[in-house]
């Protein structure tokens, strides 16, 4: 029983070649190794070590150095540090992987493009589109039957999940007729994302960031679809 032993002043000197095969360490609970000097341990041979079961280890804080091997993803800004990284040879899915199960509309050229810069200031809690909050903005007027291409440019440091009511948001992932058909388009910081809308629902619709505080602060537009079978142009 070696409980309570104090090795504080031991000098291990040159121990090369020592044979410890017959040592019995018994109960070593409570030993004080605080003063041990391990000197130069270069060249130690750990080849026979058995680490047993290491499942469940948490590597959350490991630093793997440069992430240079990451493929570019247009839905995350390069250098933003926001690109998800998968471990164990896995892969995170992104918008770039989405496809429509079946196309809802004929794939055709858009009739026009509307640019919507997502703008704001976190510290001052100002949220707007093209620098103008809803209460100061004109509605977006669309014509029934057109196909509008929206260009979102996120100039802020937050993701904005943009939601157009009443009509589909067809996210441009470069898959043409297989582009996914969505309700909400999340636009990551520093990215430019395109979506197209077949304007097939007459009337007045909300178009807003789905973070409700952003919508309430002014990251919101009224969309008016003019014309159409039940259109109300007033
Ligand atoms: Cu937002």
From TrEMBL:
<dbReference type="GO" id="GO:0005507">
    <property type="term" value="F:copper ion binding"/>
</dbReference>
<dbReference type="InterPro" id="IPR008972">
    <property type="entry name" value="Cupredoxin"/>
</dbReference>
<dbReference type="InterPro" id="IPR011706">
    <property type="entry name" value="Cu-oxidase_C"/>
</dbReference>
<dbReference type="InterPro" id="IPR002355">
    <property type="entry name" value="Cu_oxidase_Cu_BS"/>
</dbReference>
<dbReference type="InterPro" id="IPR034279">
    <property type="entry name" value="CuRO_3_CopA"/>
</dbReference>
<dbReference type="GO" id="GO:0016491">
    <property type="term" value="F:oxidoreductase activity"/>
</dbReference>
<feature type="region of interest" description="Disordered">
    <location>
        <begin position="1"/>
        <end position="62"/>
    </location>
</feature>
<dbReference type="InterPro" id="IPR033138">
    <property type="entry name" value="Cu_oxidase_CS"/>
</dbReference>
<keyword id="KW-0479">Metal-binding</keyword>
<protein>
    <submittedName>
        <fullName>Copper oxidase</fullName>
    </submittedName>
</protein>
<dbReference type="Pfam" id="PF07731">
    <property type="entry name" value="Cu-oxidase_2"/>
</dbReference>
<feature type="domain" description="Plastocyanin-like">
    <location>
        <begin position="108"/>
        <end position="226"/>
    </location>
</feature>
């Amino acid at each position: 029983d070696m409980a309570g032993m104090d090795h504080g002043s031991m000098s291990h000197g040159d121990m090369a070649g020592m044979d410890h095969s017959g040592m019995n360490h018994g109960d070593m609970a409570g030993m004080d190794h605080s003063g041990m000097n391990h000197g130069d341990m270069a060249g130690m041979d750990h080849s026979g070590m058995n680490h047993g079961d290491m499942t469940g280890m948490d590597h959350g804080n490991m630093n793997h150095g440069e992430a240079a091997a990451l493929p570019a993803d247009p839905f995350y800004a390069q250098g933003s540090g926001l690109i998800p990284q998968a471990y164990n040879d896995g892969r995170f899915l992104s918008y770039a992987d989405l496809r429509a199960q079946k196309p809802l509309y004929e794939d055709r050229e858009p009739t026009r493009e509307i640019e919507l810069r997502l703008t704001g200031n976190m510290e001052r809690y100002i949220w707007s589109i093209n620098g103008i909050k809803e209460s100061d903005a004109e509605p977006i007027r669309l014509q029934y039957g057109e196909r509008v291409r929206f260009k979102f440019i996120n100039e802020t440091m937050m993701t904005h999940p943009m939601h157009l009511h009443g009509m589909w948001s067809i996210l441009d992932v470069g898959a043409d007729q297989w582009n996914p058909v969505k309700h909400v388009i999340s636009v990551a910081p520093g990215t430019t994302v395109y979506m197209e809308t077949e304007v097939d629902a007459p009337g007045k619709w909300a178009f807003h960031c789905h973070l409700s505080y952003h919508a309430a602060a002014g990251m919101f537009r009224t969309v008016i679809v003019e014309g159409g079978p039940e259109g109300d142009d007033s």
